[in-house]
Known about the structure:
By secondary structure, the chain is of the alpha+beta class.
Amino acid sequence: xxxxxxxxxxxxxxxxxxxxxxxxxxxxxxxxxxxxxxxxxxxxxxxxxxxxxxxxxxxxxxxxxxxxxxxxxxxxxxxxxxxxxxxxxxxxxxxxxxxxxxxxxxxxxxxxxxxxxxxxxxxxxxxxxxxxxxxxxxxxxxxxxxxxxxxxxxxxxxxxxxxxxxxxxxxxxxxxxxxxxxxxxxxxxxxxxxxxxxxxxxxxxxxxxxxxxxxxxxxxxxxxxxxxxxxxxxxxxxxxxxxxxxxxxxxxxxxxxxxxxxxxxxxxxxxxxxxxxxxxxxxx
Length: 284
């Protein structure tokens, strides 16, 4: 595959180059509420939305449709409290969301009533069902003006060239080579930082502003010494399903989980995932 010619660092640098800055530090207005959204055909709690209480249920359904693909006409929308108890079924399209007095952290559960929905039978989550376009290395090398040829020329000029180094040069900022991975033998490494994080808290992970929920805090057998934090991301930007080297630390869909060093994780009010970006060697 041609993509195999790109290293992870190349991909990280390119993603950083084309990604817009994240939307940080949002303040919540008094007329809004933060609700988790789940879907009858999707395994993951795929998003947390900030909704205005003055929105009609019809407008809420339209907004939800843009995130999950289920048309409003095929939705049966349920409002549940923090304990999963059904509070109301939102069937009146013209009534405002605030009529039902939802609270931060409650759940909007979408029941897709269409048996032929695109979300049914795993079509939106199981990538094995999607026919993928492939290109051989030979076909890719035969093309003009490709990244591979650009990289080849750059490496001839500078054997230590990387895409990250190139971007720094274009931006006129100093290039700092990545640190070598530390050889840690302290079993209490980053214990204090881990102690400030709790399972169940929303969080943001650097670099990239990836957001999710903390699902594990502690040591990890088979990984370098010290403390790790397990994060269930809102989007498939992780590296695993909550298990590493045959041991499970938490549950999440494949590609939604990662174990990271605590210094990369900030707990707080982070309701939405910003970007698809990957981190460096301190993430496993």
